[in-house]
Amino acid sequence: MTPIRVLLADDHDVVRKGMKMLLEDEEGVAVIGEAADGQEAVEKVKILLPDVVILDLTMPRMTGIEAAKIISEEYPSVKILIFSMHNNREYIINSVENGASGYLLKDTGKEELMRALRVVSEGRKYFPPEISEVIIDELLAKNTTNATGVSEESKAFFQKITPKERQILELIVQGYNSREIADKLFLSIRTVDNHRANMMKKTKAKNTADLVKMAIQ
User: Cβ neighbours of residue 2 under 8 Å, at least 6 residues apart?
Assistant: First the structure.
C-alpha cells in the first residue's frame, strides 16, 4: 500500500515532533517534511507535493488560513487538514472557505486523527460533529439573512431541509458512508440512501461529492 505522504506545519517544534512520532508509528503514513510557518509550508508543498498538509492556523510570517488559500489554489491535488487549538466559528468558516478539507482540534484523539487523515487523503471531507455543526449553522444563517453568493437552489434546499436530513448531511460532511450513518442514527441503509437522494434532488447535485461540495461552500 502506498503510504499517505504528509507535510506537518506548526510553529511549535515540540508539537511537530510529537505529531511526527505519532504518525510514523502508523502503518501507511510517511511524514516527508516539516514547516515552522505558513510561508515555509507553501515552499515545502511546491518542492515535496505531499498528499496532505496538516496545518496549524496561528503561525508567524503567514497564517495557516493564508497558506491554505495559496495551497488549495496552486496545488489542488494537495489536501489540507487544519489542526488547531481554536474552536472558533470565524476560524472554522475561514478555513473551509480557503480550501481546507478537514478541521480538527488539538485535543483530538489518535484514532480520529488517523481517520481524518485517511478520509482527506481520499479527496473527501472530514469535520467532527462540533465542527460540522458550526458549518451547517453558518450555511443556514446565510440563507436566513439572504446572503449574497448563495445559489437559489441552495437557498431552497436549506430552507426545506428536515432535521433528519440535517443530521445525515453533517455525517456525510464528516466523511461517513451510508452504513456508518445508518449505524449511528439507528436507521436502515435504504433510509439513509433515500434521504441522501432527496437532498441531491433538492440541490440538483450530480453525486454525493457534489452534495458535499455544495454543503461546505
Answer: none
